[in-house]
Write a structure and sequence with these properties.
- It is built from 17 helices and 13 strands.
- The longest helix is centred in the middle third of the chain and has 17 residues.
- The chain is 41% helix and 18% strand.
- By secondary structure, the protein is of the alpha/beta class.
- It has a 6-stranded mixed β-sheet with strand order 8-9-10-11-13-12.
- It folds into 2 domains: 121 residues, P-loop containing nucleotide triphosphate hydrolases (Rossmann fold, 3-Layer(aba) Sandwich); 250 residues, Arc Repressor Mutant, subunit A (Orthogonal Bundle), CATH 1.10.10.
- Helix 7 packs across helix 13, helix 9 packs across helix 13 and helix 11 packs across helix 12.
- The protein starts with 7 loop residues before the first helix and ends with a helix.
């Protein structure tokens, strides 16, 4: 059964207006499935998977082969494996001078792809696909399952917890032992240890020196490793919100493992029952909320806010000139602390949302609403 993705209309519109549309996102988040579904509307198409030897063979003479596909929508999957294609793609789209020439997919971030594709400026638009958003599941999934299995399709849709856990273990091993080989200067053993350490301090401000000491490497090495995890969508790095109020702020970034199921696997937690009793439970809920907001509002900027005197809010969301405060509470009966109220006052948000796993929503105070994950977008949209 195909599950419709939130990003579909945006990709369709991009293909009508840009020569090149790039879909980025982590491995196994559903990019290929989404694109093969969309290609049904394009009878004249060709799909190349650069992890398939037979498709790589077709590109031995890439200029001749791609030039011969002029009237088709050319889809290239895992394009980051052949960055030398980008100058050729630029030349071809300039010659053809029409929208909808190339649809490229990559499991590296937009910024990382742009390093290889500077020449495509003005010709390309980027769309980021996440693992499943809560809104895409249309209430066909329990929040407990979404929490423990995570949002990667093959994990979430697997028949039971054991199969889901085994898939996530395999996903981690594949990333460490195969995908990591695309990048120089990284070792699987050190990366796995760092990834597990980050799972234990999930959602906390990162201390590069402490991590470096534990791993026996330099702080610069730890930063490079975290940058790679961020560039491949394995972690989310959230910078501090810097206001002009003269407050003494915590300025180190916060780091989250990007998927709750991957976090659970790195921590060795096999079920929601094990997860719910773990100290990481609250920070994993923060990650779930953050991932959904980033998927629903790709144009927004996200920060956290914390001062040395205890004012704190999980996320500050800036979009279209508006500032929202987002506090995440993994409880059905949430309350805000004095520090939360101080932070709300400091950042002068137009509205504060307290996001809980409940399906209910209600008003806590003026301009402060308790909302379910499913209602969050509707509430924000009404204020934009």
């Amino acid at each position: 059964m195909y599950i419709q993705r939130y990003l579909e209309p945006g990709i369709t519109k991009a293909l009508l207006n840009f020569p090149i549309t790039a879909i980025t996102g982590p491995r196994q988040c559903g990019k290929s499935t989404l694109v093969k579904h969309l290609l049904n509307a394009y009878p004249e198409n060709i799909y190349l998977d650069l992890e398939r030897p037979s498709d790589l063979q077709k590109l031995e003479d890439a200029e001749w082969f791609l030039a011969s596909q002029k009237d088709k929508l050319i889809c290239i999957d895992e394009v980051q494996r052949r960055p030398e294609l980008f100058p050729l793609i630029r030349s071809l789209v300039d010659e053809w001078n029409k929208p909808g020439c190339f649809l490229i997919l990559g499991s590296a971030s937009r910024d990382l792809l742009k390093q290889s594709s500077e020449s495509l400026a003005g010709r390309i638009t980027y769309k980021r696909l996440t693992p499943f958003l809560w809104d895409e599941l249309k209430n066909d999934c329990s929040v407990e399952r979404y929490f423990s299995a995570g949002a990667f399709p093959r994990s979430l849709l697997s028949k039971d917890n054991e199969v889901s856990f085994d898939w996530r273990e395999s996903f981690i091993m594949t990333f460490l032992e195969r995908d990591l080989l695309q990048w120089t200067g990284f070792t699987p053993t050190t990366m796995r240890r760092l990834w597990q350490m980050l799972a234990h301090v999930n959602g906390q401000t990162v201390n590069y020196s402490t991590l470096a000491s534990s791993l026996g490497v330099t702080s610069a090495t730890v930063k490079n490793y975290i940058d790679l995890l961020a560039d491949t969508y394995m972690v989310e790095v959230v910078p501090p919100y810097i206001s002009n109020l003269g407050k003494r702020l915590v300025k180190a970034p916060k780091v989250y493992i990007s998927d709750s199921g991957i976090t659970a696997t790195l921590l060795g937690l096999r079920s929601f029952e094990e997860l719910s009793g773990h100290p990481a439970f609250g920070s994993i809920w923060e990650q779930v909320v953050l991932s959904n907001l980033k998927g629903l509002y790709p144009q927004a900027d996200f920060f956290y806010y914390r001062t040395t005197n205890g004012a704190e809010i999980d996320f500050v969301m800036k979009i279209h000139g508006s500032v929202f405060a987002i506090e995440c509470k993994a409880s059905y009966s949430p309350s805000l602390s004095k520090g939360n109220y101080l932070a709300i006052e400091d950042i002068a948000s137009i509205h504060t949302f307290v996001v809980t796993p409940s399906r209910d929503s209600w008003s806590m105070k003026e301009n402060i609403d308790v909302v379910s994950l499913g209602e969050l977008k509707n509430k924000i949209d009404k204020l934009l």
